[in-house]
Amino acid sequence: MERHLTLRDYVRRRTGVPLGHRDSMRNMLDRSLGAANFGGFWRHWNPIWSYGLARYIMAPLTRAIPFPAALVLTFAASGLVHDLVIMALRRELALLFTPWFVLCALLVVLGNRLGWRVTHKPWAVRAALNLFQLAATAGIAMFTMDKFGLW
Q1: pTM exceeds 0.85
Q2: What is the CB neighbour count within 10 angstroms for residue 38?
């Protein structure tokens, strides 16, 4: 992420509209679901949260470790925050988002490495593929964490 990019600029870049605009949710969904690859999905998903992750976790990590490792750790940190909220609400150990987001990050890294892109496919096909990747990684994480009694 460019160092001088403000949250307002970041959100406008990701959604095409100003922060708080009535079309921001629609644009976020359209751009993330219709992304040409899974990395593109995450690039457009929840730009406010992504801005914080990029600025305070990803950027410092990429100064110390290779980009793919920084990406996986950033996704893990995001998942951990989500899991901490669930654990606070349930008042018991529960891990789902951390392993799920790590699986998503690994799929992004793999997709980037292999150059997976479906730019030429219609929006509906790209959306189906992105949703499939979300569902598959979530299913694997849920199954695995359930086996360990952590979900």
Answers
A1: yes
A2: 23
